[in-house]
Design goal:
Distance between the termini of chain A: 59 Å
Shape of chain B: extended
Largest sheet of chain B: none
CATH class of the largest domain in chain A: Mainly Alpha
Shape of chain A: flat
CATH architecture of the largest domain in chain A: Orthogonal Bundle
Number of helices of chain B: 13
Strand content of chain B: under 5%
CATH superfamily of the largest domain in chain A: MetI-like
Order of helices and strands of chain A: HHHHHHHHHHH
Largest sheet of chain A: none
Number of domains of chain A: 2
Helix content of chain B: over 70%
Number of strands of chain B: 0
CATH class of the largest domain in chain B: Mainly Alpha
Number of strands of chain A: 0
Helix content of chain A: over 70%
Structural class of chain A: mainly alpha
Radius of gyration of chain A: 28 Å
Oligomer: heterodimer
Number of domains of chain B: 2
């Protein structure tokens, strides 16, 4: 099949070709520059973080054998046997761990509840479409930013000194972090609402709070609930390490088992945490889909 | 004016109620649901408060103590300039940990994501395995990974970097695979129509669509890892967390405040840079569409 392709005369074609070549070369130069910067950054941070590939390779086997050892009994008459062979011995502390794990979930729950309620009240003040005063908005936004930028473990460390050991500092630390994170997410939801119902409510003479109750809340509540559930899931994970600094929950037992190389205990506790997190993941995911799906249908 | 109208309308409230009965009628089912949910939430909260032994008196006395501590934090200056240099170096270490950890995590998460995404996986069994392993990695907190890596490679920032990397493999492989699954199928069909193999179809049909999303997610994780790597030092995995925990334990509150301020400044600076990079990337992506 002979195809006669139309071809521009060379006089017209040359500048176009030239421009194309230029564009490609410019892009290539940019790529090379970007890569050079990336590699420089990698080398610099590798030097600062004391990365030792040789050590890593030498100990990589240690990493995998660590996981192997996690599933062997480390002492007593059963030393060296697989943990699955004697479930009772593996989970010798089941009652205590289950109780601590329940504490962990309650810490996460209470903190999520407190933080979400706080975020609920903060978000209307931080939303640009509902609070016209830039001063109030700015102050609330900065406060939320502070709450979510300082890691919860740092709050926990400080609160442990102030409130004493136990779950109380854990609850407060996670609640503050949740307030910051959910306050921001809630604010974004509120800023994306349809403003027509609000105008309608104002037209009937409703006050600021009334228009929020009847025009804003119905639009945002299911999203709020969904974000709160998502946070709960994140917080269960966070609460499981609060015990590392003495702020309650199962973390205390876990860090002890890891530090003292009680391998079977480590695997037992980790497995319990993993199962709990997965179950909660699964449950909240279904609830969230239900909530958001109902929203879409309604 | 509007208040007057409102008052006037409200005087006829019984009449309105009578004429629009169905609007004023109470929806008992909805009310029961709302009350039930609230009762459940409050009941669980009460159970938690009782079980965790949270008492108001402890909170109040703790608040007093906290106020005292905050008072001692002012002014936020370290005890000497030598200390300040140590903290700055530790902060650099923290940023390096976050950077390398996120980079390695993203690179390793990418193949797992390809196997876990519905449209790029090999078969159902592989997809299931990839998803479950990503779930498992994600279920373990970064601090726990840090502890484990400290046992393997010893104390120091290297363990921290590996911990950030490990937890990022779990998180990013999930996000990447979700991004891959939302990719448009038409370019893939187009590439396949030219006789390309599956691998080529993924390379030229799927990847160009998702690359900007993936890069911006990796950058976002760099931001959040800068926050979290400030604390992995608490378990001995390098970075500024070690100094923070030490200063809190030795009641050097001025140094504590200084370190927290340093962390805040670093986080805000990195947020700014990576936000700029992300915007420029996604902006370019939307132009090419």
């Amino acid at each position: 099949m002979a195809l006669a392709l139309l071809r521009l005369p060379d006089a017209q074609l040359l500048p176009l070709r030239h421009a194309y070549g230029e564009a490609v070369a410019a892009k290539r130069r940019q790529m090379v520059l970007g890569f050079a910067l990336l590699i420089a950054a990698i080398l610099l941070s590798g030097w600062v973080a004391e990365v030792q590939p040789a050590l890593f390779l030498r100990n990589l086997g240690g990493f995998f054998s660590y996981f192997g050892r996690l599933f062997l009994f480390d002492g007593g008459s059963l030393k060296g046997q697989l943990v699955f062979t004697n479930f009772g011995e593996w989970y010798w502390g089941l009652a205590g761990w289950a109780s601590l794990l329940f504490d962990t979930i309650l810490i996460a729950y209470l903190a999520t509840l407190i933080g979400s309620i706080g975020g609920f009240f903060a978000c209307f003040l931080a939303a640009g479409n509902l609070t016209p005063s830039p001063w109030i908005r700015g102050v609330v936004k900065r406060m939320l930013e502070f709450c979510r930028t300082v890691p919860e473990i740092v709050f926990a460390l400080i609160f442990v000194v102030a409130f004493g050991l136990g779950p109380l500092p854990g609850v407060l630390a996670i609640a503050i972090h949740t307030l910051g994170a959910n306050g921001k997410l809630f604010t974004e939801v509120v800023e994306n609402i349809d403003m027509k119902p609000v105008e309608g409510a104002i037209a009937t003479g409703s006050t600021w709070t009334e228009s929020i109750r009847f025009a804003v809340l119905p639009q945002v509540l299911s999203n709020f609930a969904s974000y709160a559930l998502l946070r709960f899931e994140v917080n269960v994970r966070g609460a499981s390490v609060m015990g590392f600094v003495g702020a309650g929950g199962i973390g205390q037992d876990l860090i002890e088992a890891i530090r003292k190389f009680y391998y079977a205990d480590v695997s037992a506790i980790l497995l319990m945490i993993l199962l709990t997190v997965m179950l909660i993941d699964y449950g909240t995911q279904h609830l969230r889909h239900y909530l958001l799906g109902r929203d879409a249908r309604g | 004016m509007s208040d007057g109208f409102r008052a006037q309308v409200l005087t006829d409230l019984p009449g309105l109620r009578q004429r629009h009965d169905h609007i004023f009628a109470a929806d008992w089912r909805a009310r029961a649901t709302v009350l039930g949910v609230i009762a459940l939430l409050v009941g669980l909260a009460v159970l938690a408060i009782l079980r965790l032994e949270l008492s108001l008196s402890r909170i109040i006395s703790g608040m007093g103590e906290l106020g005292h501590m905050v008072g001692m934090m002012i002014p936020p200056v370290p005890s000497s300039s030598a200390h300040a240099m140590v903290y700055l170096h530790a902060l650099g270490e923290t940023v390096a940990i976050a950077f390398l950890g996120t980079l390695c995590g993203a690179v390793l998460a990418f193949p797992i994501a390809l196997l876990a995404a519905r449209n790029t996986t090999i078969n159902g069994a592989v997809q299931f395995m990839a998803r479950r392993s990503s779930d498992t990695i994600r279920g373990i907190d970064q601090l726990i990974w840090a502890l484990i890596w400290v046992n393997v490679v010893g104390l120091g920032p290297f363990a921290g970097m590996l911990a950030v990397m490990t937890s990022d493999i779990g998180n990013l492989s999930k996000l990447f695979s979700e991004a891959l699954e939302t990719a448009d199928r038409k370019p893939v069909e187009g590439v396949t129509a030219t006789g390309a193999t599956r691998l080529l179809a993924i390379r030229f049909g799927v990847l160009p669509q998702v690359m900007p999303v993936i890069a911006s997610q990796a950058l976002y994780f760099f931001e959040s890892n800068t926050r979290s790597s400030t604390i992995i030092g608490i378990v001995g995995a390098g970075g500024i967390g070690l100094h923070l925990a030490e200063q809190i334990r030795t009641i050097e509150y001025q140094a504590v405040a200084f370190i927290i301020l340093l962390i805040l400044v670093a986080v805000v600076a990195i947020d700014f840079v990576s936000g700029f990079l992300r915007r420029s990337m996604t902006g370019r992506a939307s132009l090419t569409h």
